[in-house]
Amino acid sequence: MFLSRSVSSARRLVVASTAMKPPLNGVSEVVSSTRNGRSFASSGMIRKAPLTTPLAAPNNHRPSPKSTLMPEEDTDRCEDPFHSRTASSSVGRTRWLISEASLSNDDRSRVVLLVLNADDEALTRRYEFPAIWLRDNCQCEACFHAGSVSRVLNWEQFDVERVHVAAVQPVDGGHSLEVLWEGAENGAVVHRSVYNVEWLLERSFRQEDSEAYLEEWYRPAPELWGAARFHEVIQEFSYADVLHEDEALRQWIEALIRYGVVMIKNAPLTEHECRRLANRVGFIRKTHYGEEFIVKAKEGTSNVAYLSTPLQMHTDLPYYEYKPGCNLLHCLVQSKDAGGGGANLIADGFYVAERVRREHPDQFRLLSETLVNWTDIGEDEGGKFHSIYRAPVICIGRDGQRLERINHSVPQRGSHFCVPIEQVDRWYRAMHRFVRILHEEAVQFRTAPGDILTFSNIRAIHGRTGYRDTVQNTRHLVGAYLDWDEIYSKLRVLKTAANKGPKEMESVGG
Ligand code: OGA
Ligand code: ZN
Ligand code: ZN
């Protein structure tokens, strides 16, 4: 059920008091813009309308010399990054045939394939596949259930010490590999597996192929941006296109993954559009504030002044271990505050973290190793809650390098700080550094009614300037969250569907 009451008072327990200097030192005035609104997709599905509210670049950076929001040279990349990238992967659209299959000389633990390009036989490649992996991934009906794309091999009886290849050979004119498996006792063949060559090459163990697969099908790498580049990276999509055209939906998701922030324009002015957008991808991520929430100053309550005060830059809900991945903020009514109040602030938290890593490595280490207690205590439609999650401000992945998640929220950083006392001062200095750089890299703009600002809640850091809320001058946003699991999943579904078209047409055309 959609609740029209404001829940935002509970969502942010503390905001900067007016006596405090709002942390916008590095964020500039709105600059005038001469951006052209131009169509950039050859399909004609996506239109780049000019932003109705000018975007601001910070005053310590000159605005990008490009006057368009989307530089022309980006056009190709946006149109179909999938096809251009697959062409360079090991499989691509080339037809490969197995010319030789053998076992590794040493311990016969690997199957070695020589494959050649069907269109240019001089072009050959050597691939190795571990025998144990091949056995585990047999595609026969007893081992693999095609309908559910799932392994059904009985692992309770699978003895990894007794997997032995009896023989390997190319079959089906080199289109497939046959592997015969020995039984444990007398060496008799007990199982036969056949693998399609394309299926094998798509699962190549070569490092560059694994990397290409991960980039293409797991998670494309983000492209980080500082304030000076914001105008180059911010893309706009029409709400109707995203809702009705798969190509537009795919491009929006790809931009969200790449840049962490994307604008959607011209959504109807109802309170249900975030839900419709979320349903187009997957489903809303519910939190203890419910599914959709209203960001609005509540008239006649003690919260009015409180809710229109500046909202310091933050990530939402850092006290969740499984923090909502992506924010949808739909502007229904924007403040008409002459001073530009009610504007959005946003920065690429990954870019900020990389600057800290490069310029102040010791402080980066402190911010990425010190566990902070993020908390939220209160009551909302789902009842009382008392959330605590401990995590650093900068979370890095298991490889010790890759940025995984940024947590930053002054209101939601708990007062319990369970670290050795001698670390405290150093951590505060590092945090001060982080916030200074954050504000240097923040941009400011004001969304207009119909805009849905979409951004990664694990990467982007956002906030809002204060505004004067009166009966004649109100502000009304609706927000909701989406999880990255659903977003990535939808992207793969869309890519698979888009790839079927050209492939089928190719085979029809010979
Ligand atoms: C929030 C928030 C932004 C805004 O409610 O968490 O970031 O523009 N709001 O009011
Ligand atoms: Zn099998
Ligand atoms: Zn927020």
From TrEMBL:
Region listing for Disordered, in residue ranges: 51-86
Pathway noted in the entry: Amine and polyamine biosynthesis; carnitine biosynthesis
GO cellular component, one term: mitochondrion
Protein name: Epsilon-trimethyllysine 2-oxoglutarate dioxygenase
Source organism (scientific name): Anopheles darlingi (Mosquito)
Gene3D superfamilies documented for this protein: 3.30.2020.30, Clavaminate synthase-like
Keywords: Carnitine biosynthesis, Dioxygenase, Iron, Metal-binding, Oxidoreductase
Domain of life: Eukaryota
GO BP annotation list: carnitine biosynthetic process
UniProt-recorded Gene Ontology molecular function terms: 2-oxoglutarate-dependent dioxygenase activity; metal ion binding
Residues annotated as domain TauD/TfdA-like: 219-481
Family: Belongs to the gamma-BBH/TMLD family.
Gamma-butyrobetaine hydroxylase-like N-terminal domain sequence ranges: 125-200
Cofactor names: L-ascorbate; Fe(2+)
